[in-house]
Design goal:
Radius of gyration of chain A: 26 Å
Helix content of chain A: 55-70%
Number of strands of chain B: 12
Order of helices and strands of chain A: HHHHHHHHHHHHHHHHH
Largest sheet of chain A: none
Number of helices of chain A: 17
Distance between the termini of chain A: 7 Å
Strand content of chain A: under 5%
Largest interface: A-B, 21 and 29 residues
Strand order of the largest sheet of chain B: 6-7-8-3-9-10-12-11
Structural class of chain B: alpha/beta
Number of helices of chain B: 12
Order of helices and strands of chain B: EEEHEEHEHHHHHEHEHEEHHEEH
Strand content of chain B: 15-25%
Oligomer: heterodimer
Helix content of chain B: 25-40%
């Protein structure tokens, strides 16, 4: 098992390398660039744009840009470092200031720039480090995604089992209709209608945001933490009120897939010989369903849920946008519209990492819950 | 019908006090999309205390449905218990509440299934599955249940029983798993063991061991055995009495010797003639022509008529009753109806019947 995990972790390296290369290529192939937002501004001169490009290293050859982003090359810029000797100068690119290969950890004499060293650069719109842009958003997304995921998986389990046990009965039909309606609903429309009804007409719940701006300081700041410590019930209730509508939206739209999945796995399990054996032993029906059938039906479900975990970090783009939730999904949309390539690269590559890790987690969990699986 | 014709279902009923399981005119039907399938339609037989009866027949003749009906393991719907009764120790199993039948299942009647590979739960240990039944039916705690489970495994010849308790089914061979199933069945000292094709899925070498084991346990514990099989060789070695089923009905009953050596019903005769044996070496093996009737288009008269080499016009008009021939033998065939005595003589002669 340990050997399997180590092998898989090593296998992640090429996967991430190629996905970062792919993401980089796609961003480069897209029209425009970080300087596009100045193009419409008459006060910005061509020389200023050229200076902007030089400052961000956008005038360098693309392979060198990528090489710097990933952290194999150092951050020396321009011909002055390359010097008169282009070949020797090029070699210098791979050497850190400490005279060792740049890709090594900085403690071992490598450089400190690039994704390899945890440095995803700075946002080209507000100059913040990408890492802090992401870390500021990831908690908000994890709260929304986490609550929604827990709610919808619990509901999917219950509704899936009930539907499977009453297959083709009334309960099954109602759950199936509910699932198909939810699955077919456009998220943005559902979100807007919920806002209209519960925030607009009824005025029961806030229409968006994560906290009440009149009463609570910005989420993630020290003031917020302090208020949370002083008046935890008030702050958490405020958070809960803001969570209701986006969570309902996410649950309603996402429950269908898992509910149907549980139903199918459960119907399959209930038809198995070992369920008949359990009944033949005189086991009560509830225990047959939960202890024997569900225990087996959970195996594929666990895998499915593990593969859904990246949502906790990547965020639900549409839902976060509609409910002005300050999470990763919105950070991503903002970065796209601002041509903020550094933030985009950071979000996309971290997403790739999380997806790969979630897959590994799914395999590990599968081996834990299913005694028949062992990785030699 | 003439008064000579007795109800053959009485034939297998020795003294009333002696009978453990008495299935009377059982009708288990299934409502499916295309209509009603009468999988079991008027089956009667009985098993004495400590007795051994085999239900024999082709696939689809209703023998497994009969067994599952006794355990009330037929899902309703689509299944319907359309008639009859299953008397077990003086109670009609079909009329018990769900809670009462659960006490019977596993506790008083235990069942061994055909597929040992899939009949054990893959995610639970052997011990967990054995103790589950023991805790349900016996007054004991977890430790005691584990002891009983280990004893049961040892009784069925599983070596290293203590270690096996903590293993999962996939770590055991097919024969070993069937032993576990048998251990599970006998762990609660049932009065009746139903074995539904217990050896069909096993290697030939293992088959004999498992049969011997079932027989051995049956004699040791004094439990009655209802063996369900299509294999007449297994029948000859294992049981005392036989009920031959065809198209949801019992067509012939009798002791093993009578049924296998002097089959009365043309279907039984056909079955026996289609078994390869030493005496038939070099000769073409005979087969029963045709196929089991479509459940939606059953023949109006005798269900075997379309395939029967001895059939005549009367067979298509009414269904023969199970006719009692002597104390233990009965046959559902017009040949044994006193009205057609002349035909019976012609039927009996090719088998070289001395009587």
């Amino acid at each position: 098992m340990i050997g399997f995990i180590i092998r898989r972790l090593i296998g992640i390296i090429p996967t991430l390398f190629f996905s970062s290369l792919l993401i980089y290529s796609i961003l480069l192939a897209a029209p425009g660039g970080p300087e596009v937002r100045f193009a419409q501004n008459p006060k910005v001169t061509t020389a200023q744009i050229a200076a902007f490009r030089a400052r961000w290293g956008l005038d360098q050859p693309i392979p060198i840009q990528y090489c710097r982003w990933i952290g194999v090359c150092n951050t020396m810029t321009g011909a002055k470092q390359l010097g008169d000797d282009p070949v020797g100068g090029l070699a210098k690119l791979f050497i850190s200031e400490q005279g060792l290969p740049n890709f090594l950890p900085s403690g071992l004499g490598g450089g400190d720039n690039g994704a390899l060293h945890g440095d995803f650069g700075y946002s080209s719109t507000n100059g913040q480090p990408v890492a802090s842009v992401i870390s500021g958003r990831i908690a908000a997304t994890a709260i929304l995604g986490g609550v929604a995921l827990v709610v919808w998986i619990l509901l999917a389990l219950v509704s899936g089992v009930v539907a499977a046990v009453n297959r083709y009965g009334k309960a099954d039909t109602i759950i199936t209709i509910f699932n198909y309606v939810g699955f077919s609903f456009p998220t943005f429309w559902l979100g807007l209608m919920l806002i209209l009804l519960f925030a607009g007409n009824l005025n029961w719940l806030p229409s968006g945001g994560m906290w009440d701006v009149r009463e609570v300081p910005i989420f993630g700041t020290d003031e917020y933490t302090q208020l949370l410590r002083e008046r935890p019930v008030f702050v958490l209730m405020d958070l809960a009120r803001h969570l209701v509508l986006p969570v309902v939206t996410l649950v309603f739209v996402n429950i269908a897939g898992d509910s149907r999945f549980v139903r199918a796995a459960m119907i399959d399990a209930l038809g198995q010989d070992y369920v008949r054996t359990a009944r033949a032993k005189g086991v009560a029906e509830r225990r047959v369903i939960v202890g024997h059938a569900l225990r087996n039906a959970l195996l594929p479900v666990v895998t499915n849920v593990a593969l859904e975990l990246p949502l906790l970090f990547t965020g639900a783009i549409v839902t976060e946008t509609i409910f002005s939730w300050p999470g990763m999904g919105r950070a991503y949309i903002e970065a796209v519209s601002e041509y903020d390539y550094t933030v985009l690269m950071g979000i996309l590559v971290i997403t790739a990492l999380i997806v790969v890790l979630a897959n590994l987690l799914a395999d590990i969990v599968y081996a834990i819950v299913d005694p028949r699986i062992s990785y030699g | 019908m003439t008064t000579d014709v007795q109800d053959g279902t009485q034939a297998l009923r020795a003294g009333v006090g002696d009978v453990l399981l008495d299935v009377r005119d059982l009708r288990t039907h299934f409502k499916v999309m295309d209509g009603l399938v009468k999988a079991v339609d008027g089956v009667s037989f009985s098993v004495r205390k400590g007795g051994r009866l085999a239900l024999v027949g082709e696939s689809g003749c209703g023998k497994s449905v009969t067994a599952l009906s006794i355990m009330r393991l037929i899902e309703t719907p689509p299944g319907i218990f359309a008639g009859g009764e299953i008397m077990f120790n003086g109670r009609d199993l079909l009329r018990l509440s769900d809670a009462e039948i659960r006490k019977v299942r596993g506790g008083q009647i235990a069942m061994i299934f055909q597929e040992p590979m899939t009949s054990l739960n893959p995610v639970l240990t052997v011990g967990a599955q054995l103790t589950e039944a023991i805790l349900l039916h016996q007054e004991t705690d977890k430790k005691g249940a584990r002891r009983i489970a280990q004893k049961a495994l040892e009784d069925v010849g599983v070596a290293d029983a203590r270690r096996r308790l903590d293993q999962y089914p996939h770590e055991l061979s097919g024969g070993m798993r069937q032993r576990v199933m048998i251990a599970m069945a006998l762990s609660c000292n049932p009065a009746l063991i139903i074995a539904d094709e217990p050896t069909t899925a096993l290697d030939v070498t293992i088959q004999r061991q498992i049969l011997e084991l079932i027989k051995d346990i049956q004699t040791r514990t004094g439990a009655a055995l209802l063996l369900i099989t299509h294999d007449l060789g297994v029948v000859a070695e294992t049981v005392d009495d036989v009920a031959v089923m065809y198209a949801g009905r019992v067509v012939e009953t009798g002791s093993v010797d009578e049924v296998l050596l002097r089959p009365r019903h043309p279907y039984t005769r056909g079955l026996l003639e289609s078994i390869p044996s030493q005496g038939k070496r070099g000769k073409r093996l005979s087969v029963i022509k045709g196929m089991v009737p479509n459940p939606f288009r059953m023949p109006p008269g005798c269900k075997f008529q379309p395939r029967c080499p001895y059939q005549w016009d009367d067979c298509g008009t009414g269904e023969p009753a199970l006719i009692s021939l002597d104390e233990s033998i009965s046959s559902r065939c017009f040949l044994h109806d006193p009205r057609f005595r002349d035909r019976l003589a012609a039927y009996d002669s090719p088998m070289g019947d001395p009587a």
